[in-house]
TrEMBL record:
<dbReference type="GO" id="GO:0050518">
    <property type="term" value="F:2-C-methyl-D-erythritol 4-phosphate cytidylyltransferase activity"/>
</dbReference>
<dbReference type="Pfam" id="PF01128">
    <property type="entry name" value="IspD"/>
</dbReference>
<dbReference type="InterPro" id="IPR050088">
    <property type="entry name" value="IspD/TarI_cytidylyltransf_bact"/>
</dbReference>
<protein>
    <submittedName>
        <fullName>2-C-methyl-D-erythritol 4-phosphate cytidylyltransferase</fullName>
    </submittedName>
</protein>
<dbReference type="InterPro" id="IPR034683">
    <property type="entry name" value="IspD/TarI"/>
</dbReference>
<dbReference type="InterPro" id="IPR029044">
    <property type="entry name" value="Nucleotide-diphossugar_trans"/>
</dbReference>
<keyword id="KW-0548">Nucleotidyltransferase</keyword>
<keyword id="KW-0808">Transferase</keyword>
Amino acid sequence: MAAQDAVAIVFAGGLGSRMVKAQLPKQFITIRDKPVLVHTLEHFQSHPEVGAIYLSCLTGYIEHAWDLVREFGVTKVRAIVAGGVTAQNSILNAVQAALADNVPEDATALVHDGVRPVINADLITRNIATARERGSAITAIPCFETIAMSLDEAQTVESVTQRDLMYVLQAPQTFPLGEVFQVNTRSLEDGLLGKFVDQAHLMRHYGAELHLVPGLRGNVKLTTDFDLLQFRLLVESGALSSVVGAELS
């Protein structure tokens, strides 16, 4: 890994409890002879500016993850560590692995879900460039639906937002590695670890200025059976290349 390289912090510690029919954790479900996690990792493996990948994974699947990394030639994976109780715990564990591997604190770190495979090289490039120039990069798309707030468990609407001001935040979410470590550690000390939706939410809570990078409409976190079905159809139909704007490897 060269001194100027970025690193990918990929967290894949979820059980996929919202997938009713899943027999495996969602990151290990196979789509066209390749697990979802590998589909995701290969984007960082093939990107020339990413020098290393640090992965957090379900404790009982670490050896399985290493087997997949070797089978599919994901040679940039430098460490696979146990995930935590929450996504934020898992991210912190992977960040600590990177620092223990002597990755400098000023290295650009792309924080990404292991079950968010619909990205491309251009998105990674723009995240790295924006984070280096402006200090952060948050992948986002305009909100196409009307967003309402309810304070009584979806019984009534408290308020409706102005849609043209709203954005859906995706991933990667990119910052200097040391900043990710410091802010996550601070939230642990404050008793807030695991209380944030994602790194953008966490960073903004502690005052960071967040800069948006245009994302992809299909760049969803595979959370439900429907999400997985959509990804399967995109891959098996050959339509994924048109969604991400690049040919499948």
